[in-house]
Amino acid sequence: MPKRRIQVRAVEQVPHLRTKGEPKIAIAPDRPTPRPPAEPDRRTTRRGRIADRSSAYKAKQSYTTPAGYVKVFCPSSHLEPCDANGYVSEHRLIMAQHLGRPLRKGETVHHLLECEGGTGRTDDNRIENLRLFPTNAAHLAHHRALRRL
Predict the structure, then answer these.
(1) Residue 1 domain boundaries
(2) Phi-psi category of 117—alpha, beta or left, where left has phi over 0 and alpha has psi -120 to 50?
(3) Residues 141 and 99 occupy one common structural domain
(4) Maximum distance among all Cα pairs of the chain, rounded to whole angstroms
(5) Cβ atoms of 9 and 34 closer than 8 Å
(6) Spatial separation of the C-alpha atoms in residues 39 and 17, rounded to whole Å
(7) Quick one: how many helices (H) and strands (E) in the chain?
């Protein structure tokens, strides 16, 4: 049977081994040292990646979702609540700025389609290309009426 290696470490590194009245040196079995606490300038994103909060790290100012909607980095927006990563849908933010108030819960912003006189593009967020519906039910009824035409 092989002998286990013994390593002498300061008790400050292994605080759980020290009790009152013991010397500040302890003999601990050779095992990995405990993981240090997370650094205050780093955070873990939802997907487990580490992102710096330091000045060297800059979030993307905007990106386009697979559905074609533009998301804008705006973690401190008082007009529109942001998601967990600090992004806001640009069309909702523009509508809230146009109205001068935050959008109410349930209000839906619609991009005008070509048959309605709009561009039909979800990345065109000009106020002329947006329409506000009070509920999602009204928005869906509008789409059903367009299909009948």
Answers:
(1) 1-31
(2) left
(3) yes
(4) 87
(5) no
(6) 25
(7) 2, 9
